[in-house]
Amino acid sequence: MAYTAKQIADYLHGEVIGNQDVSVSTFSKIEEGKPGTISFLANPKYTPHIYTTEADIVLVNNDFVADKPIKATLIKVNNAYAALASLMELVNNNTPKKSGIESMSFVSETAKTGENVYVGAFAYIGDKAVVGDNSKIYPHAYIGDNVHIGNNTILYPGVRIYHDCEVGDNCIIHSGAVIGADGFGYSKEESVYNKIPQLGNVLIKDNVEIGANTTIDRSVMGSTVIHSGVKLDNLIQIAHNCEIGENTAMAAQVGIAGSTKIGDNCVLGGQVGIGGHITIGKNSQVGAQSGIISNTKEGSEVMGSPAFPVKNFFKSSIIVPKLPDMYRQLNALEKEIAELKKKLESVD
User: Fold this and answer.
1) pTM of the predicted model, to two decimals?
2) What superfamily does domain 3-93 belong to in CATH?
3) Which residues are catalytic?
4) Which residues of 200-233 are buried (b: 16+ CB within 10 A; e: fewer)?
5) What are the boundaries of each domain within the chain?
6) Which CATH architecture has domain 100-311?
7) Exposed site from 36, 146, 239, 277, fewest CB < 10 Å?
8) How confident is the model at residue 348 (pLDDT cuts 50, 70, 90)?
9) HSE-up (13 A, CA, CB side) for residue 169
10) Where are the alpha helices (DSSP H) in the chain?
11) What is the mean predicted confidence (pLDDT) over 217-226?
């Protein structure tokens, strides 16, 4: 379906600069823009592309000022990136949705499914499980016994949710994610590791998105908790008894050891590793590939392994490449000092 610039601007409460009747039917990157598409400019480094793009409409921030003529029609909005997301959500909501229970799936007689639920072929829903209204369970997903899935939640193909775990409303769990596998818990006697039963569960609250092949382990007792609004990238490991605060975001390959607590509104870069029984204060930011071995205070900005304040990290990064020269200079100075000592001793 095509939309005109005027229709889009009215929906976004934006201002049209150019031909308000031009229409588009899909999206494109600004550097790869094609006729019939809408693009956006949010990052200043892409500004040169706005003068050459073939996209018919470009969303820009209200403070954008052109240096030369632009072929595309512009729509000025408060936040171009947020406006793009709003348009994409509109399109996504208008896409036909699957519903009904397909043949070749298994739904236990004691399970409960809400209204307008979709269960794909070869999906499994165990005893006394609950799937809320409008939720989508794609093929080959596994929902164990006593699992509770909220309303409007999506489980993509191959998601595994072990017994007794809970997932809230409006969640998205991508393919290959495993929720509720046993935590890595053992007691060692001499050279033998004895397994400690993991008797808790995983509790995922509302509006959480979990990336592909991410794993969240069940607790020894109680719950491993993922609070509302958390966004997890692909290939993340969250160990048993961890707690992730509201609206925290983690990039790919983050690993968190057991019983660690991450505060609200934290941001963790890719490949961050966090030791066990550690507390990360709310509003903290941890740079990529950092190693955290002790607690951080609220609002901390750290980087490095082991991590330390990011300003000091950048200062250190400038010094590190100079270390070989500094080492040679130090050796030369030591030799000079030794020679001076010999001369002074000979004078005495």
Assistant:
1) 0.88
2) MurE/MurF, N-terminal domain (3.40.1390.10)
3) 240
4) bbbbbbbbbbbbbbbbbbbbbeebbbbbbbbbbb
5) 3-93, 100-311
6) 3 Solenoid (2.160)
7) 277
8) low
9) 4
10) 5-12, 80-93, 310-319, 323-347
11) 97
